[in-house]
Each structure stands twice: as structure tokens, then as C-alpha cells.
Amino acid sequence: MNAASPDRHVEPSDALLLVVDDDPALRDLLVRAFSPYMKVVAAADNQEAWDLLPKIARPAVLLLDVMTPRLDGWTLARRVKGDPKYHGIPIVFLTARGSAADVAAGIAAGARGLVTKPFKLASLIEKVGKLAGVAVPAAPHDPVRRPSMLPERPKTHRN
After folding, report:
1. Domains assigned to the chain
2. By the 8 A CB rule, do 143 and 149 touch?
3. pTM of the prediction?
4. Per-residue pLDDT tens digits for 45-86
5. Exposure of 145 by Cβ count < 10 A (0-12 exposed, 13-18 middle, 19+ buried)?
6. Measured between alpha carbons, how far is 58 from 41 in angstroms, rounded to an integer?
7. How many whole angstroms separate alpha carbon 132 and alpha carbon 121?
8. Can you list the alpha helix ranges (DSSP code H) found in 38-112?
């Protein structure tokens, strides 16, 4: 795989990411954000994701919303970790819940990461890309870390 740079086109890898979020706008954003780097399958809730798993290639990473209808992310993570077919798939939780108890619940469920909403998309892409073994540009979609995109500071003259 080619090393990625912000100025070069990145070919998507064969790695598969399963994204779960019950917010259609956020789910669509995540699919569009990750698609340049890897294959993406999306589910509207964790039960749908569980039902999809036997029908798709083995995901490189699961990106799970914790609070979805029908099945919460903690439960899906425990199911995945307990099933020999899926054991070992890294799980990252994307959640509005960021208390110490929630972090502990995520770790207990087998998470490799817990990202609280709101989040920096660039950081999430880097974290998931690393877990999937996919090269992504440093801080994609993050103009703050790409100096060429920052406006020039006005020059001041001292008298």
C-alpha cells in the first residue's frame, strides 16, 4: 500500500469498516469520510450490524454508536468478542456518553477506543485507520493541521 500524503490521491484499501449510527446524517458523513481509505458498510443500529456480520466480509474495525434502538453498542461488542468468527475485531465506540463509568463499560466490552461526540473527524479517521492497518494522510479533513490552507496573517509594521 502506498504511503498517503494530503497532496496525493489515496486508493481505498480492501479493509472493511462497519459503521453503526442511528443518526442518518452522521452515518452518511462517516461513510463519506472513510470511503476514500477503506470499504465501508453502514448500519442504522447495532442489531442491524449484528444481522449484517455473517453476510459481509470480516470487518477490519467496528465503529459503533453506543446508544441505538433495539441493541446497545456494549451488547454488540460483547457478542462480537464472544463469537469465535469475530473475536479479535477492534471496536471503537462513538458516543455522547463520556463519563468514567462509560469508559469503564467500553473497556469491559472490549473496546480499543472510545470517542465522544462531538469529535474531530481527522482524529477519528487516524485512530480507525491505524486499527485497520490502513495508511491515511496525517490529519485528513483538518485544515488547522495543514498550514498551506491557513490564511496568511496580516503583516504589521512597527514604527
Report:
1. 16-138 (3.40.50.2300)
2. yes
3. 0.79
4. 999 999 999 999 999 999 999 999 999 999 999 999 999 999
5. middle
6. 11
7. 16
8. 46-52, 73-82, 100-108
